[in-house]
Task: structure prediction
Amino acid sequence: MSRTRLTEDEITTALAALPEWHREGEAIVRTAETASFPTAIRVVDTVAVAAEELDHHPDIDIRWRTLRFALSTHSAGGLTGLDTTLAARIDEVLRTTS
Result:
């Protein structure tokens, strides 16, 4: 996982493997609905552990059962391999927790 900014082609390829994610400017974003508010909090807690392991922290918005994740590497001024790696981990957490 690199903190080097991805090229447009690399971003396109990465997003093809992350179908739940879309680009918004210099970030990738996913919204997910969970079964309940406690489940949403469990997802966020598990994502927080993964983010700490990567030393890369998403923006997370919690609205009852709906979660919105936004990823960007601010120090690189855009998207890096850290963002796509964490996006894949978030997808896995959502598959196994919600």
Observations:
- The chain has a mean pLDDT of 95.
